[in-house]
Design goal:
By secondary structure, this protein is α/β, with parallel strands linked by helices. Among the domains are: 92 residues, Urease, subunit C, domain 1 (Roll); 116 residues, Roll (Diaminopimelate Epimerase, Chain A, domain 1), CATH 3.10.310. 26% of the residues lie in helices and 24% in strands. Strands 1, 2, 3, 4, 5, 22, 23 and 24 form an eight-stranded mixed sheet that branches. Strands 7, 8, 9, 10, 11, 12 and 13 form a seven-stranded mixed sheet that branches.
Amino acid sequence: MHYILKSKAIFDTEKKETFSGGIEIKDGYITAVYQQTIPTNRGCDIIDCGSQMIIPSFIDAHVHFYLASLVYNKRLTVVSGRSPEEVAKQAETLPIQNGWRIGIGWYASDFGQQVYPTRWQLDATTHDVPTLLISGDAHTIWLNSAGMNALNITPETLPKEITGERFYENNVLTGVFLEAIAIYYLAKVLEIFHETATEDCLMYMKQLNQMGITAVGDVALTGESPDDLVYPHLYAHQQATVRINFFPAMREETQHLDTLSSKYTSPMLQMSGVKQFFDGVTSSHTALLKEPYANPYHAHDVGIPLIPIEKMRRLIHLANQKGFPIRIHAIGDKAIQLTLTYLKEAQEKYPLSKGNNTVEHLEVMDLADLPLVTQPNLVLSVQPSHLLVGYDTLDEEVGPIRAKDMFPFQTFHDVGATLGFGTDVPVVVDVTPLESLYYAVARKTTNGLPEGEALMSHQKISIADALVAHTSGAAAAISRDDVGTICVGKRADLAILSDNILHLSNPQDILNVQVHKTILNGDIVYQKI
């Protein structure tokens, strides 16, 4: 296919501005970029987009693809509430699929500080059917007694080699599990959907195309459990319309990773690096802090490293040594500091020949550690929608002093760090890239909350900077250098927007912008009717 896209608004990610001209596309690649004048002797069609904005297609740098596909295809149902009883009441309406009721979306922090539900609360509404409820941040699961029995969970059968919280009441397991042990059992339950997974994934890709997305970074949901919920064999299909760059869990035994790295190397499906988890999340006090939580659960409550600190250091060094770009989940300021320090050490000792290391989330950032974020081959992978997840409990969780410096996007930009945007779907559900741009620029919910001043309003970034973060910055986060910009030689992955978003004066107007076309390899994979 050979054609030229013409527009008065083509986005330049380097200059962070638009220009009038054309993009010549042939055989899936950008072969020429014209400023102002477009030649008429190229022997191909010219498609005039008028004032519609042409951008590199959006890239979601951080997703849990399999889990997200289950939510999109309604294999999992969203549940939420302000109390365990309210959520448990919703559980009885969940559809039964392959013998299970499964929901996702509740947060223990919505119930109050250090308040966790129990299986007996679920038993009151769903005692006869195995039921699994996944927390919104995907770090906790809640089972009823029938679910415990179906998985043969007893104190004696719990895997001894996997860490994570197991809650007891009067020496009886409550059915709530955190972190690695939670993902261990979650993976076992979700096996029931593997038979339809490829079809589900293809359907979900079409949904992403409607958002202007043609590439994602599919990252491990655990760094420790045997099953990390990254399934390239389920994604491989000739009809795929999204480039999946997957990052399985980094292990000390790398034979499996070596096999995956050698097997999956195509432009549409490739292993682009590895993933690990330094800590958990603030809502469950598993994010690792330098100083205790504002409302500690116990003496010196600073959270926990999910794996031993020295082991994490070894894994980071080993990943760099093997040439695997590594992505580290780090939310607490202590976890962030140690992650940045170890990545710097590894890069100095074993410089990556290709790709970038990435720190994920960086929510509770100590600004004293800012000098570490500008090191070579480093991307900060952040999720603007996370700003609004439980924003009204941040002061209560980490204290107002730390909360005021959370999600410091503009500060990162000011010191020269590379930002890559993603959603962490399904931790947040159905967030579009345009909504992510809005969150970064407005620092409010789509309903305009909080009223008055925006969340950490001094950390708002410009629309242009946000757009760069969701295109070329996100490409850097998934270690791709063939997409993310409109340049000669890059793959023709583009999105056409209804409006030039750089010219919008009110951030709220971003939410009215529509994706008119999504192009992958020069082919239209979505066109608004």
